[in-house]
Specification:
The protein has 282 residues and is of the alpha+beta class. The protein folds into 2 domains: 23-152, 2-Layer Sandwich (Ribosomal Protein S5, domain 2); 155-272, GHMP kinase, C-terminal domain (Alpha-Beta Plaits). 38% of the residues lie in helices and 21% in strands. The protein contains 8 helices and 11 strands. A 4-stranded mixed sheet has the order 2-5-3-4, with helices on one face. It has a 4-stranded antiparallel sheet with strand order 9-10-8-11. Strands 1-6-7 form a 3-stranded antiparallel sheet, with helices on both faces. Strand 3 and strand 4 form a beta hairpin. The radius of gyration is 19 Å and the shape is globular. The mean pLDDT is 94.
Length: 282
Amino acid sequence: MLLGEHAVLHGRRALVCAINKRITVSLFQCSEAVVRIVSDLGTYEAPLNALIDHSDFRFVLDVVRQYPLTQGIELKIESEFSSDIGFGSSAAVTVATHAALMGGVENRMELFKRSLATIHRVQGRGSGADVAASVFGGVVAYRAEPLEIHPLTESFPLTAVYSGSKMKTADVIRYLEERRALNADYFERIFDRMDASVGEVIDDFSQLGRMLILNQKLMEEMGLCNAALAEIIEGFQTLKVPAKISGSGLGDCAIGLSKVSKVGTFQTYALQVEPQGVTISR
């Protein structure tokens, strides 16, 4: 997420991008009437018509339940990044699994809608911005309600820095909603400023760095910057690199608008905006 966290849950626009780290879901037919999942998180197997819930595979199992399978399948899931570092793995694996079971990506809007429905069933709430990035690729200006998906043809380097911890998105949303209930007008003004910042970047993409800095201040005003994230942001500032928290906050990553090899003692990830969204190979 580049701009607009939380505001996107309240009718405002966000700016999100796909990155050059992929999750691959390979689909194989099985002679046995089972669903088998093989991934770095472990192996799962259950009868085709009696799928058992599993915390590591909640999104994949929800996807599988949406298709009338007549024979067993094996899904092999491979990832170029850890699911712990806030790179949108839940959205990516959801989109990839739907694409595999749909058998194609010709109707990307249908793929988006099915994937977002899975996120909502499993997670309870989510804007769908990360789903849009996974489906369409590149940079996407996104509004959840009313739905707007506006791809932008931009590519640039980013550095992501993992803070060392994460807080579940649903828990951060709950925390913020409790704060918002105490001063709704204050938060509405913040959301409006985030929305306006997305508009400025749509009109002039050279403003992205300045809007990253502004949105970081707004994330701090909302109470979403913990000590580790503050240290990362300070490290980027020392290097004169525009930076902000990326995601719901209180954990996960911060991103900087440049390629940086070192930010303090934290693990860095060199990224590039990936113009190509979900693809199918046969």
